[in-house]
Design a protein that fits this description.
Layout lengths: L1 H10 L3 H33 L1 H37 L3 H37 L3 H16 L2 H15 L3 H24 L9 H26 L14 H33 L3 H13 L1 H23 L3 H28 L1 H6 L5 H14 L3 H16 L3 H24 L4 H4 L2 H25 L7
Helix pairs in contact: 2-3, 2-7, 2-11, 3-4, 3-5, 3-6, 3-9, 3-10, 3-11, 4-5, 4-6, 4-9, 5-8, 6-7, 6-8, 7-8, 9-10, 9-16, 10-14, 11-12, 11-15, 12-15, 15-16, 15-18, 16-18
């Protein structure tokens, strides 16, 4: 019965209503995620600018963890949704079971690696001892207790794959709210809790992740009948893992490239002043208010596109992608307007000094110009992944961030004017849009056009 309901929803409900109903809970939860990322940095900034810089420098490593978790989840999501569309229910269960196994292995690797590498990671980036101390403390806690984030991401993807996105809103929202509430309590020592400073920010983060993970496991067990997890006698399935990583590895690399890009930009900006690095950290947190809802939209779009690709329904597939692009463009336009008109007040939330305002105001105004093109590129990349061609997404990301953005930032830095470095972002986004257009046309000709027109 559950399978029949799921088939009707993914294969019959009008695609615009389906995309909105599946995406809206995730967009709301992503906005809450963006809020707690910003609140986290706002509280840390009250400690000192060095504390804010330390958390900013930790971002590439944290992003690498999330990239592995999300990328593996994307591979599971695409295989699982496609299997349901093709009515291969046994394969869908195998995809889920092997996905949980891969999440556990990833968590173990980052737990050990993060704890061992935390201090050397910061020492390579700066010789300011206070920043190294703050950063090592923060990252040791976040990586040492990272099992929560890996479990949460994987089980959320299982819920998304069957269209139960409302539950992911609850899990992500609950985790984020716990983080937001506990941030000031643990950082400043409110009530019976001691003042932990930067360590408190990390503890609040992992606490929220662990609670979210517990909820995802409960919701899957009780409310997701399409997937029957049975880890008793489980053995890794090489063919299934290969199928997961065929889509997942390009997605992991795609997301991880952001870590490499941010790490490289931090080094370029550090040559000017650590304040410029802090500004980049603020931008990364603030821009999530525009990008996170688009990512939530994508999370709703991918299983719909994968399902209807498996069901051989071209009309529904194309309708979903087109509507997603319209919605993404509108979201990014709102983000652009806010960053253009409210730049100084936004920076002031982070206890900005005069130097930070002088660097940050032109930085945010310049970088946000890239939003005009970003929505199209993000939806395009997710479309490639949903159709099992994640390599194209990886190629777009490599070109945008490593072959255009970083070299452009370095060349512009040679002028000795930090305000010119920020123009690397719009330059890179234009190149991304051009490449995505070419790849979309190729994908349509090779994969989508041969499909039957559907109803």
């Amino acid at each position: 019965m559950g399978e029949h309901i799921q088939e009707n929803k993914m294969g019959v409900m009008p695609v615009r209503r389906l995309l909105v109903t599946m995406s809206l809970p995730m967009m709301i939860s992503m906005l809450i995620q963006a809020l707690y990322n910003v609140v986290d940095s706002i509280f840390v900034a009250q400690i000192s600018e060095n504390a804010l810089t330390a958390v900013s420098l930790a971002f590439p490593f944290q992003n690498l963890m999330i990239s592995v978790g999300v990328g593996t989840g994307v591979g599971v999501n695409a295989l699982l949704s496609r299997s349901l569309g093709e009515k291969e229910f046994k394969r869908a269960n195998l995809a889920a079971e092997n996905g949980v196994f891969l999440a556990a292995v990833s968590a173990l690797v980052f737990t050990v690696g993060g704890v061992l590498a935390a201090r050397p990671y910061f020492a390579v980036q700066t010789d300011v001892q206070e920043i190294v101390d703050y950063g090592a403390t923060y990252l040791t806690i976040c990586s040492g207790l990272c099992a929560g984030i890996f479990i949460a991401i994987m089980f959320e993807r299982l819920l998304q794959s069957t269209g139960r996105t409302f539950y992911t809103m609850i899990t992500q929202g609950t985790g984020a709210i716990i983080n937001i509430v506990m941030d000031p309590v643990l950082i400043f020592g409110l009530g019976p809790f001691p003042a932990m400073g930067v360590a408190g920010a990390a503890a609040a983060t992992v606490l929220g992740q662990i609670v979210g993970a517990v909820l995802t496991v409960i919701f899957n067990a009780r409310c997701n009948p399409e997937i029957q997890l049975s880890l008793k006698g489980f053995r890794p399935n090489g063919a299934i893992i290969g199928s997961i990583y065929k889509v997942g590895v390009p997605s992991i690399i795609l997301s991880s490239i952001g870590s490499v890009m941010t790490f490289g930009l931090n080094q370029i900006l550090n040559a000017f002043t650590t304040t410029a690095t802090a500004v980049l950290g603020i931008y990364i947190k603030v821009q999530s208010f525009a990008f996170m809802p688009v990512f939530g939209l994508n999370n709703g779009m991918v299983p719909i596109v994968s399902y209807n690709y498996g069901a051989r329904n071209k009309k529904r597939l194309m309708g979903t992608v087109k509507f997603a692009m319209v919605l993404a463009g509108g979201i990014m336009l709102v983000g652009l307007l806010l960053l253009q008109t409210c730049t100084a007040p936004i920076l002031s939330l982070f206890n900005a000094s005069e130097e930070m305002l002088a660097i940050g105001v032109p930085a945010l105004k310049t970088i946000s110009l890239s939003f005009v093109f970003a929505g199209f590129a993000i939806v395009s990349s997710s479309t490639f992944q949903a159709l099992g061609n994640g390599v194209l997404s990886m190629m777009v990301s490599i070109v945008r961030q490593l072959l255009v953005l970083l070299p452009a930032a370095w060349l512009l830095s040679l002028s000795g004017r930090v305000e010119l470095v920020w123009w690397a972002f719009p330059i890179a986004e234009v190149s991304s849009m051009i490449l995505c257009t070419a790849f979309l046309l190729h994908t349509y000709r090779k994969i989508v056009r041969p499909l039957p027109d559907g109803n």
